[in-house]
Amino acid sequence: MNQVEQAVRAAIVEILPDLPAAEITRDKSLRDLGADSVDRVEIISLLLHRLERAEPISNFAHIPDIGALIEHLSRGNS
């Protein structure tokens, strides 16, 4: 598991503390995991801060699942 994937998992667990970590799989969306729109914005904001990225949250609106989120955030962070 790379740094970005670890950061994504940590942010999800932090914002959704009742979610078992085992449920966080690359094929699920944040919505599938029970994140409402506010939760999703908080997760993305937290990730952008932790990964020191400056990017509009709107860039994440059409990302379909956790795997795509990890890939998007990994660009430029190799």
Overview of the molecule:
The protein is mostly helical and 78 residues long. The protein has one domain (3-74): Non-ribosomal Peptide Synthetase Peptidyl Carrier Protein, Chain A. It is 46% helix and 0% strand. It is built from 3 helices and no strands. The mean pLDDT is 94. Residues 1-77 form the Carrier domain.
Which features does this protein show?
phosphopantetheine binding; mainly alpha; globular; PKS_PP-bd; ACP-like_sf; 78 residues; single chain; Non-ribosomal Peptide Synthetase Peptidyl Carrier Protein, Chain A; phosphoprotein
Largest sheet, strands/sense/barrel: none
Tally of helical runs: 3
Strand-residue proportion: under 5%
Residues in helix, %: 40-55%
Q: Which spans have pLDDT < 50 for at least 5 consecutive residues?
A: none
Domain Carrier: 1-77
GO molecular function: phosphopantetheine binding
Protein name: Polyketide biosynthesis acyl carrier protein
InterPro entries: ACP-like_sf (IPR036736), PKS_PP-bd (IPR020806), PP-bd_ACP (IPR009081)
Tell me briefly what this model is:
The chain has 78 residues and is mainly α. The chain has helices spanning 3-15, 37-50, 66-74.
SSE map:
Blueprint: H1 3-15, H2 37-50, H3 66-74
Keywords: Phosphopantetheine, Phosphoprotein
Protein name: Polyketide biosynthesis acyl carrier protein
Domain Carrier: 1-77
